[in-house]
Amino acid sequence: MHADAVNPPVLVALNDLAAGLFLLSALGMVAARQTLACLRLFITQSFFFAVSALLVGAHPLQWDLIAVGLLNLVTKLFLIPWMLRRTVREEVYARREIVQVLNMPTSLLIAMVLTVIAYFVAVPMLRAAGDTGYAKVNLPIGLAALLLGVYTLAVRRESVPQLIGLLAMENGAFFAGIAIVSGISLIAELAIAFDALMLAFVMGVLTRAIHERIGTTEAGALALLKED
């Protein structure tokens, strides 16, 4: 039986809506000019990822996915943003623009191309996964978010936006995975959540040290922290 006949149409429709807003949040992170706006968009993206995990896990009931959704609500909507705001000086979030290699129109054009590529790459993967009701939406959008996270990580030169890009890559990978994997090990998700918290803490401390030492938050400036 086709997955659309098994999965309740209301849940499928709500998941489609969450997926669309998830992708818009990923595109918004590429377009964001301020670190604070980028962080808020990451929180928004994480919220819609959690919503999708809860919807996919609701029918048939999968407690692993329910736990993944709830865990992401706690860690990525509250703990990681709180940790970054506590460890990084407020001046970093108040900056006028994020330093990056390419200008914004070029970045948006590349982001659109990456999104289209993700949909083409997803086609053979969907055939292998059985083209289920959730996967046909989550897989291409998750891959697109993953590619957009990689792009954000590559073109930006400041540590906090780079960290957000890395966390967005994780969101994209899990967003695609929850719809094509029958069950996700809660132990694995707990380990990844703990690693993300530690990464946020370490990057926050390093960013604070860079800013206090040389007055910038560029990741390349880490070399200037060496002893004289």
Write up what this structure looks like.
The chain has one domain. The termini are far apart. The N terminus is likely disordered. It contains nine helices and no strands. Helix content is 79%, strand content 0%.
Could you list some keywords that capture this structure?
228 residues, mainly alpha, 79% helix, globular
Summarize the helices and strands and which ones pair or pack:
Blueprint lengths: L2 H4 L2 H23 L3 H24 L4 H25 L2 H5 L9 H26 L5 H21 L3 H22 L5 H29 L14
Rg (C-alpha, Å) = 18 Å
Largest sheet: none
The total count of strands amounts to 0
Helix and strand run: HHHHHHHHH
How many domains make up the coordinates? 1
Low-confidence stretches: 1-5
Strand residues, percent: under 5%
Summing up helix and strand content along with how strands pair, one would put the structural category as mainly alpha
Helix content: over 70%
Output mean pLDDT.
79
End-to-end distance: 69 Å
By DSSP (H or I, 4+ residues per run), the number of helices equals 9
The shape, in one word, is: globular
